[in-house]
Amino acid sequence: MRSYLTAVCIVTLFLSCSTREEGGFTVPPDYRSWGKPVKKLLDYPVPGHGPTFRVIYANKTAFTASVAKNQTGTARITMPDGSIIIKEIYKKKGDVNKKEPELTIMVKNLKSKLSLHGWFYYVKHPGKPITRIDGRLCIGCHEAANEPHPYFDKNAKGIFRDYLFTSYIK
Amino acid sequence: MEGKRVSFFNSISFKVPVIIVGIILIGIGLTIAYYLRSQNATIIGAKEDEIRQEANIIYRAIKNNMLPGEAPIAVELFKDFTQANFASEIKLYRASGVAAFSDNATLMLVNENLGTDKFEPKRSFIPYEKIDTPGFKSSVAQFNDIFVRDIGERDKRLQIYKVLFNQPKCSRCHGLDHVIRGVLKISTPVNDVYRKAQINILISIAIYGIVVFILTSVIIIFIRRVIISPIFTIGDVVEKVGAGDFKIKAAVQYTDEIGLLAGRINAMIDGLNERFKLTKFVSKSTLAHVQADEDIRLGGEKKNLTVLFTDIRSFTSFSEARDPEEVMAVLNDVMNMQAGVVHRYGGDIDKFVGDELMAVFEGGDMVYRAVKAAEDIRNNMIRIYGNTEASMAVGIGINTGEMISGNMGSTERIDRTVIGDAVNLGARLVSVAGRNTIVLSEYSYSRVKNRVAVREHDPIRVKGKNKPVKIYTLRRTL
């Protein structure tokens, strides 16, 4: 009886110490009540998304980004842990806010070693379950956000923007 | 098991080393295997990290050179890297699998996207080549970097397929209709790394074998000297004690548990020797009584027995003329002869009292056996000491009847003997027996009269009996 209890305790301890799967995410149903870091509809084509129409939402945490400047005035934007950016992608302009969009999501998670430069990337196609993108499909482009690029405000100064092409910080 | 040796495979000298060596084999083996695996994994992992890092550097270099439209610089860069490490291979492929810079297709597309003839068509190209390896296909399909360990018998290479994305900054020239610009393939031979790992394995196995051999030898020698050999010594001693040798001792010098065991065995031998000597001081019936493991209590039971008494005649005059040592030696010789005869006929020496002997016969044909013993004693005395008036002789009395056999004395000191009228009459008969004469009571004679020749005498008066007792003297057995 005693050895049985010991075995149960060991198994319980083992299970309690085992690593749970990290990076799971559920799309908050009220995300459209969040703020928009970019007020206007993004309608110019970009690599990866092509000629689409995009609306971006960000949770409250994402609006508390820190901006650091060094002696030469170069800024560095750092998004806080827990930031969530949800990008709605529509193929037609008339579908905006009318049809279920494709969602691409960035979640800042500094605690997980599985995150890519601190971010988890997810894709949710209409009517399908959410999928985490662990390869370089997303980060392969987003790493270019930290240097000058031809879109949005073009980040001409090459500010580190924490892998976000658009920013509410001027 | 007595006197036998156990088989080798069932012996401690086999079992214990097998267990210990087994533990050593598994323990050290697992440790070395783990260490070896870790070390080799570290060596190979370090090489892999190095290649990944190399790939990242080249990737960034390509990105930066391609941006201003300096693709030829990237080509030169590949050549430089390849020349720096002849065995390495660095190539860039388009997403279609065709080698980059093998024609002007990309250049023409860029000009078209820009709406100018910014880049003039090239005249020299790298050789046409199309790749369709699983690594390449996976990298394109998964939009991810793919690392391949291509470990063959002879050629061992690490390959990385690094995806070159059509980043926003690239899209102005290259368009928006694709995600992947190309795949950078770096292939590096790692034969040396694996050879080092193999040497590590061989050296570790050799060290493992030597360590196990040395430890095994030391353990076997130690066990043989400290455990097995003393156990054999003790076993031999016990075997000899079993054969009746109580003077032997287990000569074990150690002060450990085996030494303690040897000491206890020696103490046991001393005790056995003491008890063995004590058995010479008691009758066979006493020994049988003790060995029967019954409660030793005072008391007895009635039995029909035959008693034989002997008394040496002329012993007083014999002893007066001789030294006490000589007297004792002769007395012992006579008693020894008589005891031997009694035992030969199944009798039991009850006691020696001075020059007298009392023996008891029990069971079938007990009277005749007692008579035969008496006759042999008389014949031996005559043969040894002669049959003159001056020679030493023996008088013998035999009686049969119901007597009490049991434990007499005190609770501290017990004698197992027989008592009763029949015993007393036997003692009286010996007192009336002449030199080398055997006197039988009437009852004893009645039991063997067809087997003996006797001389009948007139009844005699004996102490303790109101009526005269009829006696017979033995002439010979028939």
Proportion in helices of chain B: 40-55%
Please report which band the strand proportion of chain A falls in: under 5%, 5-15%, 15-25%, 25-35%, 35-45% or over 45%: 15-25%
Task: Quickly give the structural class of chain B.
Answer: alpha+beta
Contiguous low-pLDDT stretches of chain A (5 residues minimum) are 16-21
Given helix and strand content, the structural type of chain A is alpha+beta
Distance between the termini of chain A: 69 Å
Count structural domains of chain B.
3
Main sheet record of chain B: 8 strands, mixed
- The quaternary state of the protein chains shown equals heterodimer
Name given to the CATH homologous superfamily of the largest domain in chain B: Nucleotide cyclase, GGDEF domain
Question: How many individual helices of chain A?
Answer: 2
What overall geometry of chain B do the principal axes of the alpha carbons give? rod-shaped
How many distinct folded domains of chain A? 1
- Overall strand count of chain A: 7
Mean pLDDT over the full residue set of chain B: 85
What is the top-level CATH class of the largest domain in chain B? Answer: Alpha Beta
Q: Any idea of the CATH topology of the largest domain in chain B?
A: Alpha-Beta Plaits
Please mark out the parts of chain B with pLDDT under 50 across 5 or more consecutive residues, or reply none.
none
